[in-house]
Amino acid sequence: MKVTLVLRNKKNALKLSTRSLESFIERIKTDTKNGIVARRRQQLSYGDYIQGYDQQFPSHIVYPSAEFKKDDNDNLCMKSFNGVVALTVEGLDDQEIEAVKRAAQILHYTLAAFVGPSGHEVIILVRITNASPSITQPYSEISVPYSEITQPYPTEEEADALCQEGHRLAVAIYQGIIPKPISKEPVSVKSHFHMPLDPAPYYNAKAVALPVTGKPLSVVQSSVVSVEHAEAPEEKGAQQVSQKAKQLMDFLNAHYQLRYNTMMGYTEYKDNDYRYMDWMPLDSRTLKGMTMKVRLNGIDARDNDVRRYVQSNMIRPYDPVGDYLWEQYYKWDGKDHIRKLARTVPTKNPYWEEWFYTWFLGMVRQWQVTSLAKYGNQAVPLLISEQGWNKTTFCEQLLPPELRFGYTGNLQLTDKRQVLQQMAQMLLINLDEFNQISPQTQQGFLKNIITLSSVKIKRPYGQHVEDFPRRASFIATTNQADVLADPSGSRRFLGIQLAGPIDVSTPPNYEQLYGQAMRALHQHEPYYFGPEATQQIIESNRKFSVRTAAEQFFRDYFDPASSEKDGVWMSATAILSYLKDEVGISLLKPVSVVAFGRKLSGIKGLMRRETKSNSEYLVKLKERK
Predict the structure, then answer these.
(1) Cβ neighbours for 333, distance < 8 A, ≥ 6 positions apart
(2) Which of these, 164, 87, 166, lies nearest to 128 by C-alpha position?
(3) Using one digit for the tens of pLDDT, what is the confidence trace for 208-225?
């Protein structure tokens, strides 16, 4: 795919060059040495007559829809069609420019989005393809030379028709997510714009081509053919099918608002006849009602016809989480609201504010689904206090009302399929009554899922297992202090002993909270714990560890030795055998040597060495009366 750059010098001589789209995107990141784009933008800001300026100081004009060549008279003629149309959103300030570019990235038809020549517009390049069965590839993906193509391929006139219909359809789809009006100026394959400038353009080489569902090429041609050249029966049938599909789409778009909830995985709708209606999932009952309305208005359609459209990728995607977060990005007032929220939790732990800040950034980062993540948010705040100190309310209030659907405190860890599904669809999971989770589950299943960046599940009625990004982070509450059963996994929990009830009387300022988090992540602040903080967490969590009978008896009979002079090296097996001889097997609950060894490894000050056969610990016997 090559875009065409045209420059007419002061003598009106036409100079033509082409660039690959990738090269063009790189080109617009910086201005020329003499700042042609910046100078032209300045001239536009003066409000002077720009045409005279362009004649005196010519700059390149970009033709994105096709690659052109010159004929003998210096006229542009199409060499190959790119299958691209340009949408323009004008009259934008800096914040609106970023909002439009982010919105354009949501749709997978977007090939590129960048700031236009004036600096106050965004140009969106949308990939299109003819829906005619005779052309099955986007034009930009046909690899044979233009002159060798034997299948139907658009002439310049046909490309004009495709651009016009593609632009009309793209405007209808994109306007649903673009916060400003899209220009509806006449378009053609020769639509163009002056050289833009954008240090951070968006580019997606794998953009999907938008099927142009208007009249296929044969119908475009037939509209200008005389009566003597009437359509063949198959052409007439194609025209009728196309017209019915267009009537159906126009009717549904006129009477309903439709969007595809990417997080929940279903289409949502609003009925325009009900002004104050909230967005609702499009269920089978509503689908049948839509079909009846369509038929009552004289359009011959069935349930499958309506379903095919409302469940297709022509319905604009909607990310409730991403949209909410970006709405808050520019609202932050520069104050520290995240640590302020942490201070509503009374505790003597000196690290709590910093731990909470890092965890909060990790939670928000987890919501921003990315293919680059290797691990999920592995930290879990564990709030410990007696009952009635507002721990659960604090957890619920971490999410704003707009995202409260993503909170749950009712996770059944025994149902692994439900756990994985909620990790993909929820935002915050509260492991309430954490002390009721068995040590085996803590050390096995729970420890594993906390680290996941994605989950593999099969949808209801699905045919195969799919890979879904994990969104949910974890938080936990308990009324007991000795709850951490896995010494090697304790670094994942931020154990916080409350010194009093949490103040939940004033709801958090969500705009500021999430605006601060978005800015911090944009500035690459760490959202995970480094080695120093991890060691702090491990040391702090020692007092919250579950102590088995074997560990209690070890502390009764042994102390860590400081040197070999006053101690002896013993294996976990030997120590456990000694305790059984001293206290009796009946007082020691069943415990494996491996589990006992893990407990010994977590005892502060207890030295360990590795031998050929096992691990040994430097201990000394306590003096007993």
Answers:
(1) 512, 515
(2) 166
(3) 888 875 443 333 333 333
